Amino acid sequence: MILTKAQYEEIAQCLVSVPPTRQSLRKLKQRFPSQSQATLLSIFSQEYQKHIKRTHAKHHTSEAIETYYQRYLSGVVKDGAAPVLLELANEMDYAPSLMARIILERFLQEHEETPPSKSVINSMLRDPSQIPDGVLANQVYQCIVNDCCYGPLVDCIKHAIGHEHEVLLRDLLLEKNLSFLDEDQLRAKGYDKTPDFILQVPVAVEGHIIHWIESKASFGDECSHHAYLHDQFWSYWNRC
After folding, report:
1. Which of 67, 85, 205, 215 has its CA at 20 to 30 Å from residue 226's CA atom?
2. Which residues, at least 6 apart from 73, have a Cβ–Cβ distance to it below 8 Å?
3. 169 contact partners, CB below 8 Å, separation of at least 6
4. Cβ contact 194:180 at 8 Å
């Protein structure tokens, strides 16, 4: 269904006062029962990511990192099985996966001879069993599986949903007997930036001539539309 701007702004305003948890999503669904879970989750994720970008810098000062690390250490000394990192992230209003990254980097800086590379950090976040400290590995794992908006688990889900929507779109085009070229075929022809599909015979939709289609499995707010226009759509429009 099409969401009006007023409806979107009401949902976005509601999200200002709720933490990024699954419990908050359930409350959101109760308040806006006419909206699908997928729509609410997508808006929820986008609004939270905007918040994280606005507050990112304050969590990465040397003072903040050291404060978080010392609180983590004191917390696991008291009870290593308690969700110390997850509770710290929620208290600081910061994404659990990003808090886990901060603490993991600080831990490795203290215990390794050389500073950890980004690839090493990413690998440990994807598979916490690689972390040389069992308690920290468990703390990082708790953050990853409880993060609704960031982290390797969320990235995998987003990638799978994006691929699913491309497959659904391909099936619809085939069902309508429309002739098209997909990304792989376009790259083979030498295109570097390509939409998901170029229609070999354009079609008219609601008075507009459609030459190409780009599938985005996320909610299209004004901010994301502007970003996609700048990063992708104008180049597609110029070329296709």
Report:
1. 205
2. none
3. 196, 197, 213, 215
4. no
pLDDT digits (tens, 9 = 90+) for 159-200: 998 899 899 999 999 999 999 999 889 888 887 778 899 999
Query: Given strand 180-182, what is the order of strands in its sheet?
Result: 180-182, 197-205, 208-213
Give the confidence band of 76 by pLDDT, cuts at 50, 70, 90.
very high
d(CA 84, CA 76): 7
Q: How far apart are CA 171 and CA 222, in angstroms?
A: 29
Alpha helices in the chain (DSSP H): 5-15, 22-31, 37-55, 62-78, 84-91, 96-111, 118-126, 134-145, 152-175, 183-188, 222-228, 234-239
Q: What is the pLDDT of residues 135-156, one digit of tens each?
A: 999 999 999 999 988 999 999 9
Contact indicator for 29, 44 with CB cutoff of 8 Å: no
> Residue 153 in contact with residue 147, Cβ under 8 Å?
yes
Percent over 90 (pLDDT), the chain: 52
> CA–CA separation, 118 vs 12, rounded Å?
33
Q: How far apart are the first and last CA of the chain?
A: 29
Measured CA to CA in angstroms, residue 147 lies from 2, 8, 140 at distances of 28, 23, 11
72: amino acid identity, one letter: Y
Give 94-149 pLDDT, tens digit per residue: 999 999 999 999 999 998 878 889 999 999 999 999 999 999 999 999 999 999 88
CB 228 within 8 A of CB 216: yes
